[in-house]
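User: I'm preparing a small set of examples for a lab meeting where we compare how different chains pack in three dimensions. I only have the primary sequence for this one, and I'd like the structure in token form so I can line it up with the others. Please keep the answer compact; I'll paste it straight into my notes.
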Amino acid sequence: MPLRLPDVRRVAADVARQEDPALQVFAATNGEGATDYTEVILRLHKPSSDPTHVVIGIRRNAGEWQVRRLLRDRLRDHLRDLSINDPSVLSPFRTEDVT
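Assistant: Understood. Below is the structure token output for the 99-residue chain.
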């Protein structure tokens, strides 16, 4: 059974909080015309920089732990890419497994 949109938002907020306290879930919405595809938009706001938005697309037809792991892995990839482009944007983020 696919996760409901509020469940995806809750999981995304939990993952974001664990990775970096400056991350907030800005929105979670169904992809256009899709019933099991969701885009989660997160905002990274550090006092020393302008807010940065990260968009992560996921399929909700997996269990919660799989969605959690997918969100965490994709978020870490995005954060890593951001830190390569501007290391001052990010503080170190956690690397331990949260599942």
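A couple of notes for your slides: The radius of gyration is 13 Å. The chain has one domain: 5-83.

User: Perfect, thanks.
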